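Notes from hallway chat w/ T.B., transcribed later so I don't forget. T.B. wanted the structure written out for a chain they're using in a teaching module, and asked if we could keep both sequence and structure tokens in one place. Agreed to drop them here.
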Amino acid sequence: MKIIEEESATSYSIRAVLPASIVAGKGRKESDTTEYRVRDRDIIIVEDEKALKEILFELFDSMGNRVYVFESGDEALAEFKKGKANIVISDYGTKGMTGIELLTRVKELDENAVTVLLSGWMIKDLKAYRNVVDLYLPKPFKLDVLIKEISKVLIGSTR
């Protein structure tokens, strides 16, 4: 992956150039015949790190998903209540509420929603949230691992 940052007096932009192996599923080991993709989904991403937010948007958008990005758990929850998302990916430290609080509310509204928690912090008693968090990934993580693990959750359910 290549990250290109451009800054001027009036704007700042980040562009992520993703490897074809992540987007197109190329470059897998011969023994891995499973194709892991997350496609044609409505995905809410809650992240305050600008670079990671952009990378996740580009990744899921390039796979043909509809992606909604927020910095606040409250904004994300309001969007989720509109019934537009079936996957919610949240950082632990979000504005307004923690990622676990957000994902708990999401599961209360739709127990079939796929919930993903990302965190750079050590989270104690994560097992207590196994009915709330479908997938937990500590930061930093590899994008192909994120896609593979979300795919496994989707394959293992009727979502």
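Follow-up for T.B.: The CA atoms of residues 25 and 31 lie 14 Å apart. Might be a good example for the class.
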